[in-house]
Amino acid sequence: MPSRLIVSRELADLFRLLAHADRLRLIEELRAGEKDVTSLAHALDLPATRVSQHLTLLRAHRLVEERRDGRSHFYRLIPVHLAEWIVDALPFVDIRQRLEDAEHIDAARALWSVPGPDSSH
Q1: What is the DSSP secondary structure assignment for residue 16, as one 8-state letter?
Q2: Architecture of the structural domain at 2-112
Q3: How far apart are CA 33 and CA 75, in angstroms?
Q4: How far is CA 102 from the centre of its chain?
Q5: Alpha helix (H) ranges present in the chain?
Q6: Which residue has the higher pLDDT, 9 or 98?
Q7: From edge to edge, which strands make up the β-sheet containing 72-77?
Q8: What's the chain's average pLDDT?
Q9: Which CA distances in Å does 120 have to 5, 86, 99, 110, 114?
Q10: Are the CB atoms for 74 and 34 separated by under 8 Å?
């Protein structure tokens, strides 16, 4: 069963990468399409340097792709369905915190469930 071990380790690495609220928000922000670092920083109310650091990690794991145009760096989500997968995980959050944060979970689901331009929905 070494293949199961390899796959489970790869999944664990992916989950560790995604285990940061800023990176999840970046993925959801990129669902709508390509954006530059400044736009992402503004949309997420984060410093551009922090956004760049997160994007570097996501790029190293081939989850985002970079395009340069002069001094601007644009990023897009490569597996667009990853954003949908995050929305699909919201019921697991629901189970744990439904009584305390129901309105926050429902608001996130509504916002994140808007199909992106490359969505198959």
Answers
A1: H
A2: Orthogonal Bundle (1.10)
A3: 8
A4: 21
A5: 2-18, 21-30, 37-44, 48-60, 81-88, 90-112
A6: 9
A7: 35-36, 72-77, 64-69
A8: 86
A9: 31, 15, 32, 17, 12
A10: yes
What pTM value is reported for the model?
A: 0.77
Q: Can you give the length of the chain in residues?
A: 121
Residue carrying the six token digits 């667009």: 80
Tens-digit pLDDT profile for residues 26-44: 999 999 899 999 999 999 9
36 strand-pairing partners? 74
Q: Which residue has the tokens 């198959």?
A: 120
| CA–CA gap between residue 100 and residue 82 (Å, rounded) | 27
Distance separating alpha carbons of residues 51 and 54, to the nearest angstrom = 5
Structure-derived torsion over alpha carbons of residues 23, 17, 116, 110, reported in degrees to the nearest 10: -70
